């Protein structure tokens, strides 16, 4: 059974339909990379999975269970689905360690010391144990994003959502974040990633989806999709992307 | 050693001269005045505390609440901000069907009015915390209340300190209005001193002493709150990216 399944998902902001019937599924351990032009609905699609945005029609299933119903326990759903934001959104008043311990203490009810131990292990995992006592303002963008990843991982999620995790980073800081994401993929984490890092998509993605105008225009293994896109729009988008050196916001 | 400082010595004199004898009068009654200052400080603390306890939830409700509660809270705020303090005190002391002492009535009046202003300080501070902070908190599974408590409020409180500092000193100075309901705070005691028969020449000295005490208290308060701000400061709390 698939871990995540979209079934004809639709979402509108006012009169503007942003998601126009999205259907796809991914298995446990899959890494799905979503690409597409700005405004095509990529962020909205991710946000529907953890209900930061509500769908208007259609259903999303996590591990076979519909999670877009009114009686879904939203807080439990969000605990099970980690999210990494484009602009980090680290808790500005807490240290790197404090960012990771907060969810452990408040959501998973870890005692203080155990939360600390677990959070240190997560910071270790993203290579930032030595920055545990730094505040977000004292970290580089790449470090902030890795704290963001550690914060999400600490909740032991079944699925990780990444919304352009490297788009706000200086080029020389992107590599560290991608390395952490690659490690995660290798460990078997199920990941739904909006990213235009073609190298990452090629090496880590099981499947790539091209989203345009709120629809999945084309979907396939990275090698196939990148080398011989079947759809004209996919081809055009990929061409623009490579000519811009992978730099779409 | 009669120091005579001529401030505005007209032919009539008008007592606008600083007399050593009058300063001695102030000094003799220093303890009496300082007890008044103690009441002023106590009244400031209870009023600001009441203002905080009611104003912080009110500010939170104005931002995150929904429905009729928001309307009720914001209308109460408008009411208390739009009513002169003396009138509020007339209600809490003279009109109040419950028989309360002047101190309690003053705390209630000053505290509720302060709550109305503090709610706006906190509302603004909460709104200045970026949307992403709430989303990040919710995305790890925190409820809205948990997110407000552990993520939004701690950041908002830090940003409220300058406004809170301002409000604190306003309340401190406005405690003098409790004179109106006969509370024996600093100004009331000053008034009682210079209206004693034969002490009319000491009016300036008494009022100067009283204002000096207010000034010292204001400066001390500001420094205390500055210290608090530094103590809980976080590197560049303005930038949550
Ligand atoms: N909160 C919102 N209110 C109104 N419109 C929105 C909101 N969020 C996104 N949109 C609109 O939805 C469309 C898709 O946005 P988004 O999912 O962020 O696209 P992408 O992530 O692919 O750039 C855009 O046209 C955007 O303007
Ligand atoms: Mg986006």
Automatic annotation (TrEMBL), chain A:
One of its GO terms (cellular component) is plasma membrane. Pfam families: ABC_tran. Residues 4-238 form the ABC transporter domain. It is found in: Cell membrane. Its main location: membrane. It comes from the Archaea. It is a peripheral membrane protein. PROSITE patterns: ABC_TRANSPORTER_1 (PS00211), ABC_TRANSPORTER_2 (PS50893). GO terms for molecular function: ABC-type amino acid transporter activity; ATP binding; ATP hydrolysis activity. InterPro entries: AAA+_ATPase, ABC_ATPase_HisP-typ, ABC_transporter-like_ATP-bd, ABC_transporter-like_CS, MetN_ABC_transporter-like, P-loop_NTPase. The keyword Cell membrane applies. Keywords: Amino-acid transport, ATP-binding, Cell membrane, Membrane, Nucleotide-binding, Transport. Belongs to the ABC transporter superfamily. This is Glutamine ABC transporter ATP-binding protein. It comes from Haloglomus irregulare. The lineage of its organism: Archaea, Methanobacteriati, Methanobacteriota, Stenosarchaea group, Halobacteria.
UniProtKB/TrEMBL annotation, chain B:
Belongs to the binding-protein-dependent transport system permease family. GO terms for biological process: amino acid transport. PANTHER family: L-CYSTINE TRANSPORT SYSTEM PERMEASE PROTEIN TCYL, MEMBRANE COMPONENT OF AMINO ACID ABC TRANSPORTER. It comes from Haloglomus irregulare. One of its GO terms (molecular function) is transmembrane transporter activity. CDD domains: TM_PBP2 (cd06261). Keywords: Amino-acid transport, Cell membrane, Membrane, Transmembrane, Transmembrane helix, Transport. It comes from the Archaea. Residues 37-225 form the ABC transmembrane type-1 domain. InterPro entries: AA_ABC_transptr_permease_3TM, ArtM/GltK/GlnP/TcyL/YhdX-like, MetI-like, MetI-like_sf. Its main location: membrane. PROSITE patterns: ABC_TM1. The chain crosses the membrane at residues 32-56, 68-94, 202-221. It is a multi-pass membrane protein. This is Amino acid ABC transporter permease. It is found in: Cell membrane. Pfam families: BPD_transp_1 (PF00528). One of its GO terms (cellular component) is ATP-binding cassette (ABC) transporter complex.
């Amino acid at each position: 059974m698939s871990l995540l399944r979209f079934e004809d998902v639709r979402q509108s902001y006012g009169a503007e339909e942003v998601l126009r019937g999205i259907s796809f599924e991914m298995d446990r351990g899959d890494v799905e990379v979503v690409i597409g032009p700005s405004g095509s609905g990529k962020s909205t699609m991710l946000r529907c999975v953890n209900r930061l945005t509500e769908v208007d029609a259609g259903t999303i299933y996590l591990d076979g269970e519909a999670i877009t119903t009114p009686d879904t326990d939203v807080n439990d759903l969000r605990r099970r689905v980690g999210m990494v934001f484009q602009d980090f959104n680290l808790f500005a008043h807490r240290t790197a360690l404090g960012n990771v311990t907060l969810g452990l203490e408040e959501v998973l009810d870890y005692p203080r010391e155990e939360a600390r131990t677990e959070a240190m292990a997560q910071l270790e995992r993203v290579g930032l144990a030595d920055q545990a006592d730094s505040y977000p303002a004292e970290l580089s963008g790449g470090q902030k994003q890795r704290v963001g990843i550690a914060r999400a991982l600490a909740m032991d999620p079944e699925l990780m959502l990444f919304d352009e995790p490297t788009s706000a980073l200086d080029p020389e800081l992107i590599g560290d974040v991608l390395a952490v994401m690659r490690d995660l993929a290798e460990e078997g984490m199920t990941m739904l990633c909006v990213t235009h890092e073609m190298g990452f998509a090629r090496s880590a993605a099981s499947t790539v989806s091209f989203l345009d105008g709120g629809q999945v225009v084309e979907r396939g293994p990275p090698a196939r999709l990148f080398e011989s896109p079947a759809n004209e729009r996919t081809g055009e988008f990929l061409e623009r992307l490579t000519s811009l050196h992978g730099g779409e916001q | 050693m009669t120091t005579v400082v001529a401030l505005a010595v007209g032919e009539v004199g008008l007592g606008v001269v600083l007399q050593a004898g009058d300063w001695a009068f102030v000094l003799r009654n220093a303890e009496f005045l300082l007890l008044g200052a103690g009441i002023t400080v106590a009244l400031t603390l209870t009023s600001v505390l009441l203002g905080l306890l009611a104003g912080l939830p009110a500010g939170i409700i104005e931002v995150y609440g929904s429905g009729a509660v928001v309307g009720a809270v914001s209308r109460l705020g408008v009411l208390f901000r739009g009513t002169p303090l003396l009138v509020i005190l007339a209600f809490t002391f003279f009109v109040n069907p419950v028989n309360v002492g002047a101190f309690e009535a003053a705390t209630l009046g000053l505290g509720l009015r302060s709550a109305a202003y503090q709610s706006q300080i906190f509302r603004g501070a909460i709104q200045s915390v970026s949307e992403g902070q709430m989303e990040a908190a919710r995305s790890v599974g925190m409820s809205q209340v948990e997110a407000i408590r552990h993520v939004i409020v701690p950041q908002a409180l830090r940003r409220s300190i300058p406004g809170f500092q301002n409000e604190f000193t306003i309340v401190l100075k406005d405690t003098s209005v409790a004179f109106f309901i006969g509370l024996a705070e600093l100004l009331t005691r000053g008034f009682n001193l210079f209206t004693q028969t034969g002490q009319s020449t000491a009016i300036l000295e008494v009022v100067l002493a009283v204002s000096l005490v207010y000034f010292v208290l204001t400066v001390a308060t500001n420094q205390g709150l500055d210290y608090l701000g530094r103590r809980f400061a976080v590197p560049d709390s303005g930038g949550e990216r």
